[in-house]
Write a structure and sequence with these properties.
Layout (H helix, E strand, L loop, with lengths): L20 H12 L3 H17 L5 E9 L23 E8 L4 E8 L6 H18 L5 E6 L9 H7 L2 H5 L3 E6 L8 H18 L7 H9 L5 E6 L1 H7 L18 E4 L14
Parallel strand pairs: 1-4, 3-6, 4-5
Antiparallel strand pairs: 1-2, 2-3, 5-7
Length: 273
């Protein structure tokens, strides 16, 4: 007995489309708006305008993870070069812009985690510091690149729409720059911090771990504000992530999120100490 099956096939045919020159130019213009170059030029212009016209209650914070610092000894035996002898502290850097000042910040931790829980353990101390320095500030604009494992993810969206309100911020925006253009000034902060650490080692001091790195840098005169975050502080953030968080459709196409009130997601709200 022969069993007959229906088979679906797709045919590609050439079709002639007739239109006007005006429609062609309009379609080209609309298509151009979706390109990488158009987006980054528009973002840079908007960011420049934002910084130049900040009001007294606004803060722009441009953040990024710097490459981990490789801890070193001023003098060492050959065996130190092998295995896990050299610790690698994480550096989360940023530059904060207000109407009348610019402040560079750097959070240091021995944890290798760069996920949203780690980001907000590192970022919470920075935001608390900024609110203490500028009590009248109520509008926060965060600028970063957009990797889905870090900033552009559902967990980060959840923390962003909860934690800053506990510090007194009233209105929030998070702006994701185009791929390859998100580092900006924050990357220079990481390089400066590592150069200072290398100078300390060159003068005979050992920096074997993240805590010593923080303590040694604290003793140096610098315009960069430093913060130390224990791995346990990062792990504590894990318990605040609701299990029912859903991925937002089209996350990779999101360039900005805004918030004017805390998230209504049920579950344990994240708290800062």
């Amino acid at each position: 007995m022969v069993v007959k099956k229906k088979i679906t096939i797709h045919l590609t045919v050439k079709e002639k489309v007739t239109s006007t020159l005006h429609t062609l130019l309009e379609d080209f213009r609309l298509g151009l708006k979706e390109t990488h170059v158009y987006n980054i030029r528009h973002q840079y212009a908007a960011l420049r305008g934002l910084k130049e016209n900040l009001s007294e209650d606004e803060v722009v914070l441009h953040i990024d993870f710097a490459e981990n610092f490789l801890c070193k000894y001023s003098s060492k035996i050959q065996a130190v070069h092998f295995g896990d002898s050299h610790k690698q502290p994480s550096l989360h850097t940023g530059v904060a812009y207000t109407k009348n000042s610019v402040i560079s910040v750097c959070s240091i931790s021995s944890s290798f985690r760069h996920d949203p829980c780690a980001i907000w353990a590192l970022l919470s101390k920075v935001l608390t510091f900024l609110k203490d320095q500028y009590p009248t500030a109520s509008v926060l604009h965060v600028v970063s690149d957009g990797p889905t494992t870090q900033y552009r993810s559902k967990k980060n969206f959840y923390f962003f729409t909860n934690i800053p309100y506990q510090m007194g911020w009233k209105k929030l925006t998070w702006n994701f720059l185009e791929a390859g253009h998100g580092k900006g000034p924050a990357d220079g902060i990481g390089a400066a911090v590592k150069r200072r650490a290398d100078d300390i080692i060159a003068r005979g001091k050992d920096i074997p771990n993240a805590l010593v790195l923080f303590e040694e840098l604290q003793q140096q005169k610098s315009a960069t504000e430093l913060f130390y975050v224990e791995p346990e502080e990062i792990e504590c953030m894990d318990i605040h992530v609701p299990s029912e968080l859903q991925t937002i459709c089209g996350t990779m196409k999101i360039h900005q999120i805004t918030s004017a009130s805390p998230s209504q997601m049920s579950g344990t709200k994240p708290r800062i100490s």
